[in-house]
Amino acid sequence: MQIFLIILAALVILGLALNYWGLRIREKGMKPVNKAELDAEDQRIAMTDTGRQIAYCSYGVQSSDAPVFINVHGSQLEAGFERGTYAQVCDTLQCRGIAISLPGYGFTDQKPGRQVNDWPAEDLAAVLKAEGIETFYITGHSQGTPHAMATALHYADRCLGLGLNAPLLPTKLCQELGLGKTLGTGWTPTSARLRTAYMGWYFTLFHVVYGLLPPSITSSYIKKGFPRVAADTALMHRFEAALQRSTCRGTTGSAWESAQDTCFDWGFDVRNLHHSNACVWHADDDQAIPPDQGKWLAQHLDADYRHEAEGYGHLTYCAGQYQDPEKSLISALLTRAR
Question: Strand ranges (DSSP E) for 86-186?
Fold first, then answer.
């Protein structure tokens, strides 16, 4: 009995210590932007009207009359992953690409408790203003897809095309339609709960997983069951490098971004979304987001729909043959626009 009490006391002390550590991490927030690191990554900063810093990179043809594509990354990544996906595509197709890091990732300031619906009018607006962009196409991958959809709603007259790569739908709509659950649905706390004193351990967890462990361990979930992904060294290098860059200012941002009300409750009704130039590409072997969500979106938007299982799962349209410019999502949107 005495040994049991000693072990229990040790566990309580350890739990309190981990919670306190996380509270300190949460309180400190993100580190300041390191200008030398920003320049080394060839990224830029745009300021919002509220004073937040938004990091992005520009690639492809820089001509003022080139079609502009905004590329939005998925969870735990940052702008550099989308640049790696589309830079050569934009060069070849004579387009200009702009990849933007979502709040709390890479060099972009965090915004605890935000909704996806906030993003077009604040973060994207700052970049469009800084670069003098009027009309544009937008693509999103994974968690980037709700941001692309919110943009198509907010800038209905300026958005010329909408490309959704492995898209997800909000929790309530999935429940209503009887669709499968996205990985993480119901597993993470709300932003209100993350503000409480007993949730410090959560920030510790993110610091350990995404800040201390090597990216190769963190990325193992994306390789599991997909030998083609594991064997694609260029893709995995790009993915793991983006994982590492995403926490260059710390891990509090990614912890806030995992909140249920940021990830899965977006502040707009997807059923109000319509676009005459839309592509929905969602592989049948995606294990992170059920493909039936993409199928519903494709039918709703009357979109170009691709869904074959090719052994790449959630990363199907970020690699392999789809980095051939003529087979890319960007090419598909340009073709439909013509």
Answer: 96-100, 136-141, 159-165
**Distance between CA atoms of residues 121 and 150, nearest Å:** 10
Distance CA 328, CA 36 (A): 33
Sign (positive or negative) of CA dihedral 91, 92, 98, 104:
negative
pTM (whole model) above 0.90: yes
With 90 as the cut, is the pLDDT of residue 1 above it? Answer: no
What are the Cα distances from residue 214, in Å, to 98, 217, 222?
28, 6, 15
**Rounded-to-integer distance, Cα 143 and Cα 146, Å:** 6
- Structural tokens at position 220: 């193992």
Structure tokens at 248: 């260059």
Question: 206-236: string of b/e by CB count within 10 Å (b at 16+)?
Answer: bbeebbeeebeebbeebbeebebbeebeebb
Q: Which amino acid is at 215?
A: P
Give 283-286's long-range contacts (Cβ < 8 A, gap of 24+).
283/166, 283/307, 283/308, 283/309, 283/310, 283/312, 283/313, 283/314, 283/316, 283/317, 284/308, 284/309, 285/226, 285/309, 285/310, 285/311, 285/312, 285/313, 285/316, 286/166, 286/313, 286/314, 286/316
What contacts 1, CB < 8 A, 6 or more positions away? none
Q: Would you state the structure tokens that stand for residue 93, as one six-digit string?
A: 């197709």
Q: Which domains does the chain have, with CATH numbers?
A: 2-337 (3.40.50.1820)
Model confidence pLDDT, tens digit, residues 195-222 = 999 999 999 999 999 999 999 998 888 8
Check residue 315 and report its DSSP letter.
Answer: G
Compute CA distances 131 → 55, 218, 229, 309, 330, whole Å: 13, 34, 35, 38, 20
